[in-house]
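Ligand-bound model needed. DOR.
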Amino acid sequence: MARELEIVRPDDWHLHLRDGAILKAVLPFTSKTFGRAIIMPNLSPPITSVKDALMYKDRISAACPDNHSFKPLMTIYLTESTDLMDIADGFSQNYISAVKLYPAGATTNSSHGINDFKKLYKVFEKMEEIGCPLCVHGEVVDPQVDIFDREHVFIDKILDPIMRTFPNLKVVLEHITTQEAVSYVKTSKENIAATITTHHLVINRNFILAAGIKPHYYCLPVAKREKHRIALLKAAASGSSSFFLGTDSAPHFDTHKESACGCAGCFTAPNTMSILAELFEQEGSLEKLEYFTSINGANFYNLPLNSERIKLIKETDPIEFPNKVFTGEGVITVFDPGFPVSWSVKSI
Ligand code: DOR
Ligand code: ZN
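Prediction:
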Protein backbone atom coordinates (compact mmCIF):
# COMPACT_ATOMS: atom_id res chain seq x y z
CA MET A 1 0.00 0.00 0.00
CA ALA A 2 1.32 3.47 -0.95
CA ARG A 3 2.75 5.36 2.02
CA GLU A 4 3.98 8.37 0.10
CA LEU A 5 2.67 10.28 -2.85
CA GLU A 6 4.33 13.17 -4.61
CA ILE A 7 2.10 15.47 -6.66
CA VAL A 8 2.17 18.85 -8.36
CA ARG A 9 1.33 21.58 -5.85
CA PRO A 10 -2.49 21.81 -5.78
CA ASP A 11 -4.73 24.81 -6.48
CA ASP A 12 -8.07 25.67 -4.90
CA TRP A 13 -10.54 26.75 -7.58
CA HIS A 14 -13.11 28.20 -5.13
CA LEU A 15 -12.08 29.82 -1.86
CA HIS A 16 -13.48 32.36 0.61
CA LEU A 17 -10.82 34.34 2.44
CA ARG A 18 -12.96 37.24 3.76
CA ASP A 19 -11.02 40.31 4.91
CA GLY A 20 -9.27 41.88 7.93
CA ALA A 21 -8.66 39.62 10.94
CA ILE A 22 -10.27 36.56 9.33
CA LEU A 23 -8.20 36.91 6.15
CA LYS A 24 -5.02 37.11 8.20
CA ALA A 25 -5.94 34.07 10.29
CA VAL A 26 -7.21 31.76 7.53
CA LEU A 27 -5.01 32.56 4.52
CA PRO A 28 -1.83 30.78 5.78
CA PHE A 29 -3.69 27.44 5.89
CA THR A 30 -4.26 27.71 2.15
CA SER A 31 -1.08 29.51 1.08
CA LYS A 32 1.08 26.92 2.87
CA THR A 33 -0.09 24.09 0.64
CA PHE A 34 -1.80 25.59 -2.42
CA GLY A 35 -0.14 27.47 -5.29
CA ARG A 36 -3.18 29.47 -6.38
CA ALA A 37 -6.83 29.94 -5.52
CA ILE A 38 -9.84 31.49 -7.18
CA ILE A 39 -10.93 34.05 -4.61
CA MET A 40 -14.64 34.55 -4.07
CA PRO A 41 -15.87 38.16 -4.19
CA ASN A 42 -18.83 37.93 -1.76
CA LEU A 43 -17.45 40.37 0.78
CA SER A 44 -19.77 42.89 2.35
CA PRO A 45 -19.96 45.07 0.28
CA PRO A 46 -19.07 42.72 -2.61
CA ILE A 47 -16.15 43.08 -5.02
CA THR A 48 -18.04 44.27 -8.09
CA SER A 49 -15.34 45.94 -10.17
CA VAL A 50 -11.83 45.16 -11.35
CA LYS A 51 -10.58 48.10 -9.29
CA ASP A 52 -12.08 46.59 -6.12
CA ALA A 53 -10.61 43.20 -7.05
CA LEU A 54 -7.10 44.65 -7.39
CA MET A 55 -7.35 46.41 -4.03
CA TYR A 56 -8.57 43.17 -2.43
CA LYS A 57 -5.70 41.29 -4.08
CA ASP A 58 -3.23 43.70 -2.43
CA ARG A 59 -4.80 43.04 0.98
CA ILE A 60 -4.50 39.29 0.37
CA SER A 61 -0.86 39.59 -0.69
CA ALA A 62 -0.13 41.69 2.41
CA ALA A 63 -1.69 39.00 4.64
CA CYS A 64 0.33 36.18 3.06
CA PRO A 65 3.32 34.90 5.06
CA ASP A 66 6.60 35.92 3.34
CA ASN A 67 7.79 32.34 2.95
CA HIS A 68 4.64 31.19 1.09
CA SER A 69 4.47 31.58 -2.66
CA PHE A 70 0.75 31.90 -3.26
CA LYS A 71 -1.06 33.60 -6.11
CA PRO A 72 -4.63 34.81 -5.57
CA LEU A 73 -6.70 34.65 -8.76
CA MET A 74 -9.31 37.34 -8.53
CA THR A 75 -12.98 37.36 -9.51
CA ILE A 76 -15.68 39.98 -9.63
CA TYR A 77 -19.24 39.63 -8.45
CA LEU A 78 -21.77 39.96 -11.23
CA THR A 79 -24.65 42.37 -10.67
CA GLU A 80 -27.40 43.36 -13.07
CA SER A 81 -25.45 46.54 -13.78
CA THR A 82 -21.93 45.12 -14.23
CA ASP A 83 -20.03 46.96 -16.96
CA LEU A 84 -19.08 44.39 -19.58
CA MET A 85 -16.08 46.44 -20.67
CA ASP A 86 -14.72 46.31 -17.11
CA ILE A 87 -14.83 42.49 -17.38
CA ALA A 88 -13.27 42.51 -20.85
CA ASP A 89 -10.42 44.86 -19.85
CA GLY A 90 -9.78 43.16 -16.51
CA PHE A 91 -9.71 39.71 -18.10
CA SER A 92 -7.48 40.70 -21.03
CA GLN A 93 -4.98 42.24 -18.60
CA ASN A 94 -5.08 39.14 -16.35
CA TYR A 95 -6.35 41.21 -13.44
CA ILE A 96 -9.33 38.89 -13.04
CA SER A 97 -9.53 35.18 -13.85
CA ALA A 98 -13.31 34.72 -13.76
CA VAL A 99 -16.64 36.33 -12.95
CA LYS A 100 -18.94 35.01 -10.22
CA LEU A 101 -22.69 34.68 -10.62
CA TYR A 102 -24.83 34.52 -7.49
CA PRO A 103 -28.59 34.27 -7.89
CA ALA A 104 -29.88 37.02 -5.55
CA GLY A 105 -30.53 35.56 -2.11
CA ALA A 106 -28.96 32.13 -2.80
CA THR A 107 -26.28 32.30 -0.10
CA THR A 108 -23.99 34.47 2.08
CA ASN A 109 -23.84 38.10 0.85
CA SER A 110 -25.68 37.35 -2.38
CA SER A 111 -28.33 40.06 -2.10
CA HIS A 112 -26.61 42.12 -4.82
CA GLY A 113 -26.77 39.13 -7.18
CA ILE A 114 -29.00 38.34 -10.12
CA ASN A 115 -32.80 38.28 -10.26
CA ASP A 116 -33.26 38.45 -14.02
CA PHE A 117 -30.72 36.36 -15.95
CA LYS A 118 -31.87 37.79 -19.28
CA LYS A 119 -30.36 41.12 -18.20
CA LEU A 120 -26.94 39.47 -18.38
CA TYR A 121 -27.17 38.22 -21.95
CA LYS A 122 -24.92 40.99 -23.33
CA VAL A 123 -22.37 40.20 -20.62
CA PHE A 124 -22.52 36.46 -21.40
CA GLU A 125 -22.08 37.22 -25.10
CA LYS A 126 -18.92 39.19 -24.35
CA MET A 127 -17.58 36.56 -21.95
CA GLU A 128 -18.18 33.83 -24.52
CA GLU A 129 -16.30 35.89 -27.10
CA ILE A 130 -13.25 36.53 -24.89
CA GLY A 131 -13.20 33.11 -23.13
CA CYS A 132 -13.71 34.51 -19.62
CA PRO A 133 -14.99 31.77 -17.25
CA LEU A 134 -18.30 32.25 -15.45
CA CYS A 135 -18.34 30.65 -11.99
CA VAL A 136 -21.92 29.83 -11.09
CA HIS A 137 -23.63 29.31 -7.76
CA GLY A 138 -26.18 26.91 -9.23
CA GLU A 139 -29.29 27.08 -7.06
CA VAL A 140 -32.70 28.59 -7.70
CA VAL A 141 -34.00 30.80 -4.91
CA ASP A 142 -37.73 30.28 -5.50
CA PRO A 143 -39.22 29.60 -2.05
CA GLN A 144 -41.61 27.14 -3.74
CA VAL A 145 -38.66 24.89 -4.65
CA ASP A 146 -37.54 22.52 -1.93
CA ILE A 147 -34.01 23.32 -0.77
CA PHE A 148 -32.83 19.80 -1.70
CA ASP A 149 -34.04 20.31 -5.29
CA ARG A 150 -32.64 23.78 -5.89
CA GLU A 151 -29.51 22.67 -7.73
CA HIS A 152 -31.07 20.34 -10.28
CA VAL A 153 -33.94 22.79 -10.90
CA PHE A 154 -31.33 25.52 -11.55
CA ILE A 155 -29.61 23.29 -14.11
CA ASP A 156 -32.88 22.62 -15.96
CA LYS A 157 -34.48 26.04 -15.72
CA ILE A 158 -31.59 28.50 -15.73
CA LEU A 159 -28.26 26.99 -16.74
CA ASP A 160 -29.34 24.84 -19.65
CA PRO A 161 -31.20 27.68 -21.42
CA ILE A 162 -28.13 29.92 -20.95
CA MET A 163 -25.88 27.22 -22.42
CA ARG A 164 -28.20 26.73 -25.39
CA THR A 165 -27.96 30.45 -26.12
CA PHE A 166 -24.19 30.70 -25.46
CA PRO A 167 -22.90 27.21 -26.29
CA ASN A 168 -19.23 28.18 -26.01
CA LEU A 169 -19.46 30.15 -22.75
CA LYS A 170 -16.91 28.75 -20.29
CA VAL A 171 -18.81 27.80 -17.16
CA VAL A 172 -17.75 26.34 -13.84
CA LEU A 173 -20.74 24.92 -12.04
CA GLU A 174 -19.53 25.48 -8.50
CA HIS A 175 -19.66 23.13 -5.51
CA ILE A 176 -21.94 20.56 -7.13
CA THR A 177 -23.93 18.35 -4.78
CA THR A 178 -26.11 16.08 -6.92
CA GLN A 179 -25.83 13.17 -9.31
CA GLU A 180 -27.89 15.27 -11.77
CA ALA A 181 -25.12 17.91 -11.79
CA VAL A 182 -22.47 15.21 -12.29
CA SER A 183 -24.35 13.81 -15.30
CA TYR A 184 -25.03 17.27 -16.75
CA VAL A 185 -21.34 18.14 -16.67
CA LYS A 186 -20.26 14.70 -17.91
CA THR A 187 -22.53 14.89 -20.92
CA SER A 188 -21.70 18.53 -21.76
CA LYS A 189 -18.98 19.86 -23.98
CA GLU A 190 -15.64 20.57 -22.39
CA ASN A 191 -16.42 24.27 -21.83
CA ILE A 192 -18.58 23.24 -18.84
CA ALA A 193 -16.76 21.94 -15.78
CA ALA A 194 -17.60 21.60 -12.10
CA THR A 195 -15.86 22.14 -8.83
CA ILE A 196 -16.43 19.74 -5.96
CA THR A 197 -15.75 20.62 -2.33
CA THR A 198 -13.96 18.48 0.22
CA HIS A 199 -16.91 18.50 2.59
CA HIS A 200 -19.44 17.35 -0.03
CA LEU A 201 -17.21 14.30 -0.60
CA VAL A 202 -17.46 13.50 3.11
CA ILE A 203 -20.92 14.38 4.37
CA ASN A 204 -24.48 13.61 3.41
CA ARG A 205 -27.54 15.31 4.89
CA ASN A 206 -27.66 12.95 7.86
CA PHE A 207 -24.44 14.54 9.12
CA ILE A 208 -26.32 17.82 9.48
CA LEU A 209 -29.68 16.62 10.70
CA ALA A 210 -29.55 13.19 12.34
CA ALA A 211 -28.88 12.78 16.08
CA GLY A 212 -28.97 16.53 16.78
CA ILE A 213 -28.47 19.49 14.47
CA LYS A 214 -24.81 20.11 13.53
CA PRO A 215 -24.36 23.70 12.36
CA HIS A 216 -20.74 23.21 11.32
CA TYR A 217 -21.89 20.82 8.57
CA TYR A 218 -24.41 23.31 7.21
CA CYS A 219 -23.34 24.89 3.93
CA LEU A 220 -24.91 25.87 0.63
CA PRO A 221 -25.73 24.09 -1.53
CA VAL A 222 -26.77 21.89 1.38
CA ALA A 223 -25.41 18.31 1.39
CA LYS A 224 -27.84 15.84 -0.16
CA ARG A 225 -28.55 12.07 0.19
CA GLU A 226 -25.77 9.49 0.34
CA LYS A 227 -26.29 8.43 -3.30
CA HIS A 228 -25.34 11.97 -4.35
CA ARG A 229 -22.20 11.97 -2.20
CA ILE A 230 -21.18 8.71 -3.86
CA ALA A 231 -21.79 10.19 -7.33
CA LEU A 232 -19.55 13.16 -6.42
CA LEU A 233 -16.81 10.90 -5.07
CA LYS A 234 -16.86 8.74 -8.22
CA ALA A 235 -16.67 11.87 -10.40
CA ALA A 236 -13.75 13.34 -8.42
CA ALA A 237 -11.88 10.04 -8.23
CA SER A 238 -12.42 9.30 -11.93
CA GLY A 239 -9.74 11.85 -12.84
CA SER A 240 -12.07 13.22 -15.54
CA SER A 241 -10.90 16.63 -16.76
CA SER A 242 -14.36 18.13 -16.11
CA PHE A 243 -14.09 17.89 -12.31
CA PHE A 244 -11.66 19.67 -10.02
CA LEU A 245 -11.25 20.81 -6.43
CA GLY A 246 -12.90 24.01 -5.26
CA THR A 247 -12.97 23.71 -1.48
CA ASP A 248 -15.50 26.50 -0.89
CA SER A 249 -13.72 26.75 2.45
CA ALA A 250 -15.97 29.36 4.04
CA PRO A 251 -14.97 30.58 7.51
CA HIS A 252 -17.64 31.99 9.82
CA PHE A 253 -17.34 32.77 13.50
CA ASP A 254 -18.79 30.10 15.79
CA THR A 255 -21.18 32.70 17.19
CA HIS A 256 -22.68 33.07 13.70
CA LYS A 257 -22.80 29.33 13.01
CA GLU A 258 -24.11 28.17 16.39
CA SER A 259 -27.15 30.37 16.21
CA ALA A 260 -30.93 30.21 15.77
CA CYS A 261 -30.29 31.33 12.17
CA GLY A 262 -26.82 30.01 11.44
CA CYS A 263 -24.59 30.94 8.49
CA ALA A 264 -23.75 28.48 5.72
CA GLY A 265 -20.17 27.35 5.25
CA CYS A 266 -17.60 24.70 6.20
CA PHE A 267 -14.03 25.73 6.98
CA THR A 268 -11.88 23.05 5.34
CA ALA A 269 -8.69 24.96 4.46
CA PRO A 270 -6.55 23.45 7.26
CA ASN A 271 -7.17 19.76 6.51
CA THR A 272 -8.42 19.54 2.92
CA MET A 273 -5.48 17.75 1.29
CA SER A 274 -5.19 15.22 4.13
CA ILE A 275 -8.90 14.42 3.97
CA LEU A 276 -8.81 14.08 0.19
CA ALA A 277 -5.83 11.72 0.32
CA GLU A 278 -7.71 9.56 2.82
CA LEU A 279 -10.86 9.50 0.65
CA PHE A 280 -9.02 8.78 -2.61
CA GLU A 281 -7.06 6.03 -0.85
CA GLN A 282 -10.32 4.46 0.39
CA GLU A 283 -11.60 4.65 -3.20
CA GLY A 284 -8.46 2.91 -4.51
CA SER A 285 -7.82 6.01 -6.67
CA LEU A 286 -4.85 7.73 -5.05
CA GLU A 287 -3.21 8.03 -8.47
CA LYS A 288 -6.14 10.24 -9.59
CA LEU A 289 -5.80 12.74 -6.74
CA GLU A 290 -3.31 14.89 -8.66
CA TYR A 291 -5.75 15.28 -11.57
CA PHE A 292 -8.46 16.48 -9.22
CA THR A 293 -6.34 18.88 -7.15
CA SER A 294 -3.49 19.98 -9.40
CA ILE A 295 -4.08 19.35 -13.12
CA ASN A 296 -7.70 19.56 -14.30
CA GLY A 297 -8.44 23.03 -12.93
CA ALA A 298 -5.26 24.57 -14.30
CA ASN A 299 -6.02 23.10 -17.72
CA PHE A 300 -9.58 24.44 -17.65
CA TYR A 301 -8.36 27.94 -16.74
CA ASN A 302 -5.60 27.70 -19.40
CA LEU A 303 -2.88 28.10 -16.79
CA PRO A 304 0.39 26.20 -16.49
CA LEU A 305 0.64 23.59 -13.74
CA ASN A 306 2.44 24.78 -10.62
CA SER A 307 6.15 24.08 -10.91
CA GLU A 308 6.53 23.10 -7.23
CA ARG A 309 5.47 19.74 -5.82
CA ILE A 310 4.16 18.51 -2.49
CA LYS A 311 4.48 15.19 -0.76
CA LEU A 312 1.65 13.38 1.01
CA ILE A 313 2.87 10.96 3.65
CA LYS A 314 0.79 8.29 5.32
CA GLU A 315 1.76 8.47 8.98
CA THR A 316 1.45 5.48 11.28
CA ASP A 317 -0.95 7.36 13.57
CA PRO A 318 -3.79 9.76 12.77
CA ILE A 319 -2.80 13.44 12.58
CA GLU A 320 -4.13 15.97 15.03
CA PHE A 321 -5.56 19.13 13.46
CA PRO A 322 -6.50 22.19 15.46
CA ASN A 323 -10.25 22.09 15.85
CA LYS A 324 -10.53 25.86 16.31
CA VAL A 325 -8.78 28.82 14.76
CA PHE A 326 -8.58 32.03 16.80
CA THR A 327 -8.72 35.25 14.79
CA GLY A 328 -8.65 37.88 17.52
CA GLU A 329 -12.21 38.85 16.58
CA GLY A 330 -13.85 35.45 16.89
CA VAL A 331 -13.32 31.70 16.80
CA ILE A 332 -13.73 29.54 13.69
CA THR A 333 -14.32 25.78 13.86
CA VAL A 334 -12.31 23.57 11.51
CA PHE A 335 -14.28 20.97 9.52
CA ASP A 336 -14.30 17.56 11.24
CA PRO A 337 -14.57 14.72 8.69
CA GLY A 338 -15.65 12.30 11.39
CA PHE A 339 -12.94 9.75 10.57
CA PRO A 340 -9.23 9.55 11.41
CA VAL A 341 -6.92 11.16 8.87
CA SER A 342 -3.33 9.91 8.62
CA TRP A 343 -1.98 11.69 5.54
CA SER A 344 0.31 14.62 6.28
CA VAL A 345 1.35 17.22 3.70
CA LYS A 346 4.92 18.46 3.12
CA SER A 347 6.15 21.06 0.65
CA ILE A 348 9.20 19.86 -1.29
O1 DOR B 1 -21.77 27.40 2.34
C1 DOR B 1 -21.48 28.39 1.70
N1 DOR B 1 -20.80 29.41 2.25
N2 DOR B 1 -21.91 28.47 0.44
C2 DOR B 1 -21.76 29.58 -0.28
O2 DOR B 1 -22.19 29.60 -1.41
C3 DOR B 1 -21.15 30.79 0.31
C4 DOR B 1 -20.29 30.46 1.43
C5 DOR B 1 -19.94 31.68 2.28
O3 DOR B 1 -19.53 32.69 1.70
O4 DOR B 1 -20.05 31.60 3.49
ZN1 ZN C 1 -18.46 29.62 -2.12
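Residues 14, 16, 40, 248, 250 surround zinc ion (ligand 2) (CB under 6 Å).
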